[in-house]
Amino acid sequence: xxxxxxxxxxxxxxxxxxxxxxxxxxxxxxxxxxxxxxxxxxxxxxxxxxxxxxxxxxxxxxxxxxxxxxxxxxxxxxxxxxxxxxxxxxxxxxxxxxxxxxxxxxxxxxxxxxxxxxxxxxxxxxxxxxxxxxxxxxxxxxxxxxxxxxxxxxxxxxxxxxxxxxxxxxxxxxxxxxxxxxxxxxxxxxxxxxxxxxxxxxxxxxxxxxxxxxxxxxxxxxxxxxxxxxxxxxxxxxxxxxxxxxxxxxxxxxxxxxxxxxxxxxxxxxxxxxxxxxxxxxxxxxxxxxxxxxxxxxxxxxxxxxxxxxxxxxxxxxxxxxxxxxxxxxxxxxxxxxxxxxxxxxxxxxxxxxxxxxxxxxxxxxxxxxxxxxxxxxxxxxxxxxxxxxxxxxxxxx
Length: 398
Prior knowledge:
398 residues; mainly alpha; two-stranded antiparallel ribbon; two-stranded antiparallel sheet; disordered C terminus
């Protein structure tokens, strides 16, 4: 099976290529006018290139092509149609997002492109075979359900990343942390003979890490370029593929390893927790728009990152808070996997409480409340800006 060093070299190549190509893509974007103009929903004050996903796509292609050429990765590519299916799906979903960045597509058209990418995955065998819910055992998916579950998983994952891409470096950082944690998890499964060495999940997880790490220096606040829908949908595809073929095909840990009382016996639960930040944000976005009877495609300023900024946190601090939550959830997941012990809830609980207190009681938040004439224990609208959404106000700003 490919060594960890081989995987890391592919991830490093993806990072280097993405980092080097991004400035070139930025110059091309400005020349052709592929920029995102500031509006009432954005935190930027000047036009920014919004096709950074093109650099990420190039990094992905180079990394995948190099892995394809390396003999060490032969178990993944020999007599296996799945990598080709992921490549075709990536072309479709990135192309959909890129066109939307350049010319703007309708919401149904973007969904159609995503579903088409999912169909390509299904056609080449990149499907989830089963899933295990904590304590409920294994559910084997029938041949009729595999395509539906695969497409829905892709749509959900890609939209989760797309929705959280609202602040400089937020989506790239969250995906880098989450994908690397999932890569480590998949390597542990492989080492325990719970995952086949030919599984393509670890490869696409580490490529996702690489393109994010290479893009972040250009995208962190103050950003010089944005990934756009093309980049966000591409990252969603890479995460959907890696999590579905690992979580949906791995044997669960037995009671002899980490105990029957621990609910991470279900591999499919791992990505849901590692990617808890974008998933929670997506769930609340759906609920928010359903209760307001607005379209799911309606943009607003009710996302987690917007709420943090409304509390009084700056751009960078809001991003770092959400990065920290992702890192904590990833550590919580990896601890029992790597140590063969049930998690020590007290340290993780203290860490979570510390993040929450930092978020709610930071001096900038207290100052914001004072400026807004907010009484202790409550969060009200700003007197100076009565239309701005607060922590409990998800009024659409689109």
